[in-house]
Amino acid sequence: MYRYTRSIIALILVITLFSGFAFIQEDAEESGRAVTCLSNVFETGSILQDRNEDNVIDFVNTKIILPVNPSESEVVSAANIAARLGYETSGINMGLAKKSGILESGYDLPVIVIGRHEQMPVHDEKTILAPGQGEISLIRPDDIFQYGGIWIRGKDETGLLEAAKYFSGRFPEIWSLKGKKLSDLNSGIKKYLDENELIFKDQFLSALTVDAVSPGLTKAEFAIETGSTDESEKILEALNRENEDVNKDEKKLKSSELVLKDLHKLIIVLTSPEKTVRKIILPDKSWDTKSVTSSMKKSYPDFTLSDLYSIKGLFKDTNKDMVPDEMNAVFYVNGLAETEAVVDLGARIGLETAGIRLPVFLPAGEDDYPEKSGFPIVYGVDNYQINRQIEAGRLFGLSEYDSEGFIQFLPKAFNEKNGVIIGGSNGSGLDEVTDYLSGRFPYLWEYGKGNFKLKDVEEDVDEFFKAKNSSGQIVTSLYKIEEWLARLEGKDLESIDIELAAKDTPAGLKEFILDLIKDKYPGIVAGVDLYKTGYGNGKEIFKEDFIIPWEVDEFWKMFREDALPALNSGSHGRILVCVSESPEIRERIREQIVREIIRNGADPDNFEITVLCAYKQGYSWLHDSVLPKIRKMDVGSMEITFHSLKDSDEIKWQTIHSNTRWLQEIYPIDAVLARELGISDSLITFRSTAESDPIYKIKVYDRKGKTVFTGSFNPTYNVRPFFDLFPEYESVRVTTGWCNVEIDGDILIDK
Questions:
Q1: What tens digit of pLDDT does each residue of 585-622 get?
Q2: How far apart are CA 136 and CA 152, in angstroms?
């Protein structure tokens, strides 16, 4: 039944599209800053942006530019880079790729240019690549590329794929993922220039070269711009000095020390208004760089297509936290028909997982063993593996119509290993199914909560064939009725009575069954009775109406009866109200309290009035009470102390608990306070304590370390059984609404 259901889904997923795909994130008009150095490409602000300022990347601000007629290697390179960009962000727009010839107008965002383009500059002979080599170079901002970008190219297809592989899989590390970064190279050169008191206008990493047969970073070009030839010559003179000329007591960097591990050659490009000079620097000894390969265990899961983007499908959850963090699938791309839609598919794949092995996409030739590198996903039109599956009669999604594409799970089709095929009747059909997979899947059409998913179709089909839903029950019953009527043929019958019970019985069903009987036995006395199944058969068996009083009404009743009568003109005190209401309602409550105090002859300035959210009281206290008091202070840092429940004896035999329960309740207050106060969230620290009173304490320091504010707070909560029917099983702490009123030293309300 399981595979039968999957075959049905494979037939359903034949896609004909007539409109664009769904965006995962709405666009916004914000260009960010230009790309000015290769070492900071993946830093926040240029290509990767945090548009809601919560310290999480949520927008990819770039276009991947392909040639007008891209090769498969160029498209594969772009897809792997898109997968890396998707991995780096929590939100992305589809439509990353763009084909472009000679540009008539400029780009108003950073770009990633793939392959050869007429508008790109021709390199001079000093930067000509050898066969198998690829280059990642910086595009400086100009009239066409207004925010700069990156150009990834190769001497040949192999070199291009190697450059894209490095950029998508290792960048910004020099080589090892736990080794030195390109930013270390940048800071090392800056330190060298400063130590030698050398003058320059600008310095940046401008180009990287990799080689398909030589592990490590083959070459890095670092540009230093000066204001004069004299300044350039002083830098060149310093770089040319013998190492022993350096005063070792000063512990200055030697020029050879600038060539970090696994970087085989560093070229310093000195540019002044008059001329450009190149200085080659080699390491003291050649690096023994290893070509590291992944040791990831291969798997070939058996799944239904609705689980494609889940830990039951293409992804794994290695640490059992229900978050996809590993993927060992490989897309074999061949017969693209010059489509760039696969680039968005790469972005979607990267977006879905917290861990990924790159490259994900590989160009495929006549590979008879695609399963060797991982779970095989064959992608394209009229390619070798697809034609083999057609010959074997395994494909269901083939169509003679244009603009139709399909995706199908194939059990044991690749040398007894499972795999997936994504194809189309032509390039247009492949584009359409790819757009669907990248922008709409797993929804049937519109992407977003509340819309129908592919899983809904699966469940309906499953329930239909198991006769669990009304349509399945009725179809099964009609089949049985026709079978029974056929068995009765030739018998002398006076009457036939049929009773049919189903979850629902649609209008016209009774007449339809009567027609079946009369077609077989004209003139016979026939009767049909229909019944609905299900608990109670739709009859009301219990009803109870009750009114839940509004907590705000209960507060006003207590406040007006027990607190207001005690006020006089000289009264002072504190009023704390906790209600599970919106900020707007809480503010109206506070304003009404002020009016009632005035109406009763007292001065509201003599009262500390606080109205908090009962749901997350700790967060509300810090945001609604503390933040307004410190907003105008010169805040440098702060420490928030919370009560840890470790070793707490408040609840005996507790098994359902978290030691950091009170810390969790104030999430994400550090990000919010940092944004509102204009400080880094790293300056807001949390410390646990076994002390239970108070539950929260805060100390705020100015930029000189002096304490400028302190405060404390105890949330109100009840300890109650987790299950009322089984009170001995477990107890929990539940924060509740509360009112505490103290007037002239007397606590009048505390409940």
A1: 999 999 999 999 999 888 989 999 999 999 899 999 99
A2: 5
Kindly tell me the sign of the dihedral angle through the C-alpha atoms of 438, 441, 444, 445.
Answer: negative
213/208 Cα distance (integer angstroms): 16
Are 577 and 741 in contact by the 8 Å Cβ rule? The answer is no
Amino acid at site 156: D
Position 165 confidence tier, pLDDT thresholds 50, 70, 90 = very high
Output the pTM of the full model: 0.72
Tokens describing residue 269: 């490009």
pLDDT digits (tens, 9 = 90+) for 330-347: 999 987 655 678 999 999
DSSP secondary structure letter of residue 173: B
Predicted confidence (pLDDT) at residue 297 exceeds the cutoff of 90: no
DSSP-derived secondary structure for 122-170? PP-GGGPPPTTEEEEEEE---SSBTT-EEEEEESSHHHHHHHHHHHHHT
Q: What single string gives the DSSP state of each residue in 3-69?
A: HHHHHHHHHH-EEE--SPPPPSS---S---PPP--GGGTTSBTTTEE-TT-SSS--EE--EEEE-SS
Residue 560 DSSP code: I
Q: Packing angle between helix 470-487 and helix 454-465, nearest 10 degrees?
A: 30
Rg over CA atoms, the chain? 35
What does the block give as tokens for 99?
A: 């084909």
Summarised one tens digit per residue, pLDDT across range 573-586 is 999 999 999 999 99
* CA atoms of 224 and 114, how far apart (whole Å): 26
Distance CA 140, CA 171 (A): 19
pLDDT of 21 over the 70 cut: no
**Helix, strand, or coil (residue 257):** helix
Inter-residue contact 730 to 722 (CB < 8 Å): yes
Mean pLDDT of the chain: 87
> Could you tell me if 568 and 601 are in contact, meaning their C-beta atoms sit under 8 angstroms apart?
yes
Rounded alpha-carbon distances, angstroms, from residue 130 to 99, 160, 201, 281, 290: 27, 12, 32, 20, 21
In our burial notation (b when 16+ CB lie closer than 10 A, e otherwise), range 129-146 reads: beebbbbbbbbebeeebb
Nearest CA-CA partner of 606 in 643, 570, 654: 570
**Residues 309, 354: contact at Cβ < 8 Å?**
no
